[in-house]
Write a structure and sequence with these properties.
By secondary structure, the protein is of the alpha/beta class. The chain is 30% helix and 25% strand. It is built from 9 helices and 14 strands. It has helices at 41-51, 66-77, 113-118, 124-127, 150-158, 195-202, 209-218, 258-271, 276-291; strands at residues 6-9, 13-19, 33-39, 56-59, 61-63, 86-88, 95-101, 104-111, 141-145, 166-170, 189-194, 223-227, 232-237, 243-246. Helix 1 (41-51) packs across helix 8, helix 6 (195-202) packs parallel to helix 7 and helix 8 packs antiparallel against helix 9. The protein is globular.
Length: 298
């Protein structure tokens, strides 16, 4: 494939999602649909950007087992370059499993053990000349997710391999949000978090996306995008006015991947010259369309 437009670093795995329109909190066994699709934060972002016409590549760990071979083929078929992914026979391909009902996410388990055990081996293409080196680091966009270990994210924050990158960073979930603490004050990082994650990173309880975004800037972030589900989203930047836009009301038909779609649409819009307000509007529209199972327009 051609030289990638953006690198997506983090989880690429099988998403197994069970969805039902019934209220699961009141019933133990309900009819619904179970899907198995390529997923993971890095992959969700890459897939969205590929649909928008970009050439994304993933830096991740994928096993050489049957599930890994099938996953790699599926990734490539979706227009995402998997040629830089770490492939090893000792790795078992990672999996994410979630259950959603009409009210949203009920429970989820992320098995990213192979990505975590691979550690900085997934970053090899950034240092061995294929995508960059310490003397000539990658100078484009990188989407980075919190499925990497806290130790590795800390090393990335100080690494010369990322010294020229435009780093767009998201936690994988509230449970992994605090892994991003070493990256908060990085001058080239834009954070994408939800209101709960903003509170975990700042030790506060923000009542709104705006409050969460401004708390992160006060804590040292250069720029942060904070979403708050069906309510609104905010863009706060050091030395600039905070922007807040309401979410479009839609019928919720899926949840998993909505934040990744928001992030992908936002960075795509900015890469095409959109203003902060325009990019926030497009990201909100894309996330709403995704949740409603509508076509996601860049």
């Amino acid at each position: 494939m051609s030289h990638p437009d953006i690198l997506c670093i983090g989880s690429v795995l099988w998403d197994i999602i069970g969805r039902t329109d019934k209220p699961l909190r009141e019933r133990g066994d309900v009819p619904g649909r179970i899907t198995r699709l390529p997923g993971g934060v890095a992959m969700n972002i890459a897939m969205t950007l590929a649909r928008f016409g970009l050439r994304p590549a993933v830096l991740t760990a994928i096993g050489e087992d049957d599930a890994g071979r099938e996953l790699t083929a599926a990734v490539q078929s979706l227009g995402v370059d998997a040629s830089y992914a770490l492939r090893r026979a000792d790795l078992v391909t990672d999996t994410y499993m979630a259950i959603e009902d009409a009210s949203g996410l009920i429970a989820a388990i992320a098995d990213a053990a192979s990505l975590e055990s691979a550690d900085d081996a997934v970053l090899a293409p950034l240092g061995d000349g294929r995508l960059g080196s310490a003397g000539a680091p990658w100078a484009g966009l990188i989407a980075l997710d919190g499925n990497l270990t806290a130790s590795l994210l800390g090393r990335i924050a100080a690494s010369p391999l990322f010294a020229r990158a435009d780093l767009r960073v998201a936690p994988a979930s509230p449970g992994k949000a605090e892994r991003l603490l070493p990256l908060i004050a990085h001058p080239r990082v834009t954070l994408y978090v939800n209101r709960q994650e903003a509170g975990l990173l700042t030790g506060t309880q923000p009542a709104s996306s705006r409050e969460g975004a401004e708390a992160l800037v006060t804590a040292g972030a250069s720029r942060v995008l904070v979403t708050d589900g069906a309510r609104d989203a905010s863009d706060a930047m050091r030395g600039a006015e905070t922007l807040t836009l309401p979410s479009r009301a839609v019928a919720v038909r899926r949840i998993t991947g909505a934040g990744d779609t928001f992030m992908a649409a936002h960075l795509f819009a900015e890469g095409r010259g959109a203003t902060r307000a325009e990019a926030l509007l497009r990201a909100q529209a894309a996330a709403a369309a995704y949740v409603a199972f509508e076509d996601v327009i860049p």
